[in-house]
Amino acid sequence: MDPKPTAQTARVRTAIFPVAGLGTRFLPATKATPKELLPVLDTPLIQFAIDEARAAGIERMVFVSHPSKDAIERYVRADDELEATLRDRGKAQLADMISDNALDETETQIRFVMQEEPLGLGHAVLCAKDEVLPGPVAIILPDDLILGEPGCLSEMIAAYDADKAGHMVATMQVADEDVSSYGVLDVTGRDGALILAKGMVEKPAMEDAPSRQAVVGRYVLSCAIFEDLEGLPPGAGGEIQLTDAIAKAVETAGLCGFRFTGTRFDCGSKSGMLAATMAIASETAEYQGVVDEALGGAKAAATAAE
Q1: For the Nucleotidyl transferase domain, which residue ranges apply (predicted)?
Q2: What are phi and psi of 44, to 5 degrees?
Q3: Per the domain annotation, does 2 fall within a domain?
Q4: Is residue 112 classed as helix, strand or coil in its secondary structure?
Q5: Nearest to 126 by CA among 60, 216, 248, 224
Q6: Are residues 183 and 306 both part of a single domain?
Q7: Contact (Cβ atoms closer than 8 angstroms) between residue 36 and residue 47
Q8: Tell me, what CATH number does 154's domain have?
């Protein structure tokens, strides 16, 4: 029998960022720029994810990347030369911003591992196995931008209880026509923000979906996930599916969804990226006039067309 987890090993200390994807939906922009560095206004997607992890108290961040995407590592790490150049040119405010955004390796441990082939999210997580700290692990998909205070990961870690469920996934209610795009929970009950489940199905047809509770890109998982991923056969799309490994451990680890309070944007799609940009711009005084003008023009065009 495994020893009872200590306070140290029960804490969520590691976050895994799967960032190896080629971003084909954003070509040609992603031919030279990793999709995780595409900006929502002036903030790259990866920065939102990093800030969310920092706010949740994550000690080590493991980035599962691809050799062609070295720009991500350059972005994540401090750039002393750039900061010095900016300060020499009297741009101290910009230098401070660059410094604040970069990960301080005296505060946060950084690891990069490579996923050479696109073998699925489950395979990407498995690539990080040797770099995680003891205890449950968090997984953040930067494509899923979740805005709100507190951050989604902070909420999940605060609610995580391995005695109730060792695997926790962020979920949201989706429309009938959208369930085939998600992993979907087989719900058994609710406990506050927790949605208890006996399994999950990856991208079911609408008529076969056990619920409308769809899994989005935040996870807090028992460290047993790595053992369950090893030797797992390919699933949907011929890839190693993380949801298959989670479902495999329902009886032993337990599974629950978590209804976060923030607003989620699917920034893996162009429409989601635009929606996120408009949402942030509409809350920023500097851009309010531009947003009002754009929306006013759209309403006028719609009225004229009627």
Answers
A1: 20-282
A2: -60, 150
A3: no
A4: strand
A5: 224
A6: no
A7: no
A8: 3.90.550.10
Burial class (CB in 10 A: 0-12, 13-18, 19+), 170: buried
> Can you spell out the DSSP letters for 158-219?
HH--TTT-SEEEEEEE--GGGGGGSEEEEEEEEETTEEEEEEEEES--GGG-S-SEEEEEEE
SS3 for 96? Answer: helix
Residues 170 and 299 in one domain: no
Strands 144-147 and 263-266: antiparallel
Decide if 4 is inside a domain.
no
Residue 107 lies in a domain: yes
Classified as helix, coil or strand, 14 is strand
Q: Let me know whether 164 and 235 are in one domain.
A: yes
Whether the CB-CB separation of 293 and 207 falls below 8 Å is answered with no
Average pLDDT for 78-106: 94
Which of 132, 143, 130, 114 is CA-nearest to residue 48? 143
pLDDT digits (tens, 9 = 90+) for 68-78: 999 999 999 99
Domain that holds residue 66: 12-268
Predicted confidence at residue 1, as pLDDT, reads 35
C-beta separation of 237 from 212 below 8 A: no
Q: Say whether both 194 and 283 belong to one domain.
A: no
Whole-model pTM: value is 0.90
Which is more confidently placed, 224 or 6? 224
Residues 219 and 281 both lie in one domain: no
Q: Are residues 198 and 171 located together in one domain of the fold?
A: yes
Residues 285 and 243 in one domain: no
8-state DSSP, 106: T
Cβ-contact 155, 37 below 8 angstroms? no
The phi and psi torsions of 185 (rounded to 5 degrees) equal: -80, 145
- The verdict on residue 5 lying in a domain is no
What percentage of the chain reaches a pLDDT higher than 70?
93
Please state the domain count of the chain: 2
Residue at token pair 């047809």? 205
